Amino acid sequence: MVKPLKRILIGGLLLFLYLPIIVLALYSFNASEYLGRWEGFSLKWYGALFSNAEIAEALYYTLGVALLATIIATAIGVLASIGLFYSKAKIKKHVMTANYLPIVNPDLITGISLMMFFVFFRARFGFSTMLLAHIIFDVAYVIVVVMPKMMQIDFAQVEAAMDLGANQWVIIGRVILPQIKQGVLAGALLAFTMSIDDFVISFFTAGNRATNLSIAIYSMARRGIKPYVNALATLMFVGIILLIFFINRINDSKKDNENGRLIG
Q1: What is the CATH number of domain 52-226?
Q2: Which of 141, 124, 147 lies closest to 197 in space, CA to CA?
Q3: Which residue, 123, 176, 206, 234, could crosslink 118 as a Cys pair with Cβ 3.0–4.6 Å?
C-alpha cells in the first residue's frame, strides 16, 4: 500500500512540475498567435525566432558571458580549492564561510551590491560588468563542488611526484586534476547553468549596452508575450536536458571503465 502511494505522490509531483513546460512546448508548434487557441501544427514561430534580431543579440551575449564566465570561474575555483585544501583549518573555515555568501544571499542583494560596486569604481556597464558579476558568483559554486573531491585524492601519488622532483604546476596538472576531473566537470556545468539561468544579477549589472535572454524575455513580457517566446523556452529546455544527458553518459562510461579495470 505504501509503494503505490509513493508512486502516486511522485507522479503527481512530477506532473505538477513539468506539465506547464509540456504545455509550453506544445504551444510552440501552434499555428495561432493566440496562446489559448490551437489552430494546427506549425514551425513558423521557430522561423520567426531565428530571424529576430533582438533574440539573436541576446543569445550572443548569453552564450558569450556563460562560456567565458564558466571557463574563468572554473579555473579560479579549482586553484582556490587546491589552495584552501592545503591551508590551515582556521583559514579554510573563514574562507569557506565567506564563499557561501553569494550562494545563500538573495540574488537581489547580490545584484544591488555588485551594481553599487561598479558605480563606485565608475565602471562602464555592459558586457564586461555582466561577465565579471557572473564570474564572482560562479566561483563560489565551483569551489563548493570541487572541495569534496579534494578529500578523495590519493596523496601517495602527490608525494611520489614531489619525490621525483615535479614542481607545483606539474603536480596540479598531472596528479591532482586527473583525480578531481569529475568534480571540475560538475562545477563547470553548474556554473554554466547558473549563468545561463541568471536574471536578477544580470539585470542590475548589464546596463543598457548588453542584454541576455532572460532580460530580453522580461522586456518582451512587458510589451506582450509573443508566441516565438514559447519556441525559445522549448529550445532552451531541450538543450539543458541534452547537456545533462551527455554529462551523465560520460560519467556512466567512466564508472564502467573503472569497474572493468577493478574486475580485470
Answers
A1: 1.10.3720.10
A2: 141
A3: 123
